[in-house]
Amino acid sequence: MELNELVELNVGSPQFRIKNSVITTDPEYKFYSQNDLEEDLAGMKLFDEQPKLIRTSDNVTTLAEKDVVFSLISGKAAIVSPLHSGYLYTQNYIVIRTGEEVDDKFLVYLLNEDKQIARQLWLSLQGSSVLKYTVKQLRELKIAELPPIDKQKIIGDVYMKQCHLQALQERKARNETLLRLTRLGEAY
Predict the structure, then answer these.
(1) pLDDT at 130 over 90
(2) Which of 45, 70, 76, 88 lies 20 to 30 A from 11 at CA?
(3) What are the φ/ψ torsions at residue 90 (nearest 5 degrees)?
(4) Domain enclosing residue 35, as ranges
């Protein structure tokens, strides 16, 4: 079966059509970025950058906590954390709404790690001059028969914990390197 038979896909607002407003009573939004997606996948703050802001009266698409978001740029998926709830997402991102047949965390695991899905996405990019995925490619992904929902939940939970653990280990390694380099500098 195809992914679009299991989920609903919602494309973000076209960024070039959003008009900036100078009226201070208009809402201000933070743009969702690739770094935000990486943080959501890791389950922790990774970057110290300030998000890009826009004030607009336009009707825009925003993220909600626990939304599954897929980047058409990187081909990665994550679940939106409370930190990024309310962020404006552009046409570079797709929000995927699952039904009762698919666990959100399991879907993130499938999109990020399943070799058959990765192969389909890679093959669909062949011949492209710009390496960017499309909604059509995502919609038409062939999905193998899914395990029962209770098994999906276990796999999804373990995957998300593994992503968090990996981010912690990488942070620890960076900090240890920084500490050693600082001590070398002091010894010099």
Answers:
(1) no
(2) 45
(3) -95, -175
(4) 3-187
Length of the chain: 188
CATH code for the domain in which residue 103 is found: 3.90.220.20
Q: How many domains does the chain have?
A: 1
pLDDT at residue 129, as a whole number:
60
Taking residue 120's Cβ as centre, other Cβ atoms within 10 Å add up to 17
* Lowest mean pLDDT across 8-17, 56-65, 130-139: 130-139
Q: What DSSP state is assigned to residue 94?
A: E
The H or E element containing residue 153 is helix 149-187
Extended strands (E) in the chain: 7-11, 28-30, 53-55, 68-71, 77-79, 93-98
Query: What mean pLDDT comes out for the span 164-175?
Result: 94
Give 3-state DSSP helix, strand, coil % of the chain, rounded to 5.
45, 15, 40
d(C-alpha 95, C-alpha 80), whole Å: 10
CA-nearest of 64, 74, 46 to 104 is 64
Give which of 122, 124, 118 is closest to 137, Cα–Cα.
124
Nearest 5°: phi and psi at 29?
A: -120, 150
pLDDT tens per residue, range 103-125: 999 999 999 999 999 999 888 77
